[in-house]
Automatic annotation (TrEMBL):
<dbReference type="Pfam" id="PF05974">
    <property type="entry name" value="DUF892"/>
</dbReference>
<protein>
    <submittedName>
        <fullName>DUF892 family protein</fullName>
    </submittedName>
</protein>
<dbReference type="InterPro" id="IPR047114">
    <property type="entry name" value="YciF"/>
</dbReference>
<dbReference type="InterPro" id="IPR009078">
    <property type="entry name" value="Ferritin-like_SF"/>
</dbReference>
<dbReference type="InterPro" id="IPR012347">
    <property type="entry name" value="Ferritin-like"/>
</dbReference>
<dbReference type="InterPro" id="IPR010287">
    <property type="entry name" value="DUF892_YciF-like"/>
</dbReference>
Length: 179
């Protein structure tokens, strides 16, 4: 008698039908959009809490970038004949809320408060970059070059903001250790 229990099972192909893929895409687009709405509402306060002039400028530029990114995302919703839905964005919103707690904790210490702002904005930009990359991969299957391009622009902007924040953080550390 042969023992068929050792035979590997045939591999099942993963099928992301257009309906499933569209649902996944919109669900995650909603999460990022909701997180950006939460962020853009809080960034002006973060900008006011920043002490280092270059950091204030970077936060102002981030506000402008987030608003542009949200506008691009609204175009994507239109292309998909959809609209933004409030989504649970606990992870990204939690980072923003944690940043506020850290800012309050270091209210009287400019250097630590500014480093907290850099730390949290760096983390937020990194998560946004990863999110936009996954949505770009999904957009390939949606077969819409304009959606893919809009997501690419958002990714590039988040990457540029992250790089700017790294440079500012480095400059801040160098200038504060020399004092």
């Amino acid at each position: 008698m042969s023992n068929d229990t050792n035979k590997p099972e045939p591999r099942k192909k993963i099928s992301l039908g257009s309906k499933k893929l569209r649902g996944f895409f919109l669900s995650h687009l909603d999460k990022i959009y909701s997180a950006k709405a939460h962020l853009v509402n809080h960034l002006p306060t973060i900008k006011e809490e920043a002490h280092f002039a270059d950091l204030k400028i970077a936060v102002r530029e981030t506000i402008e970038d987030v608003e542009r990114q949200m506008a691009r995302m609204e175009v994507i919703y239109e292309l998909l004949d959809s609209s933004p839905n409030n989504a649970n964005c606990g992870g990204l919103a939690g980072l923003v809320d944690d940043a506020f707690e850290d800012i309050k904790k270091h209210a009287k210490e400019n250097e630590l408060r500014d480093m907290s702002i850099v730390f949290y904005l760096q983390n937020i930009e990194s998560l946004e970059m990863a999110s936009f990359q996954v949505l770009q991969m999904a957009a390939v299957k949606l077969r819409n070059k304009q959606i893919k391009q809009l997501l690419r622009e958002n990714y590039d902007e988040a990457k540029a903001d992250r790089t700017l924040l790294l440079l500012i953080g480095s400059k801040y550390i160098v200038s504060s250790t020399g004092s």
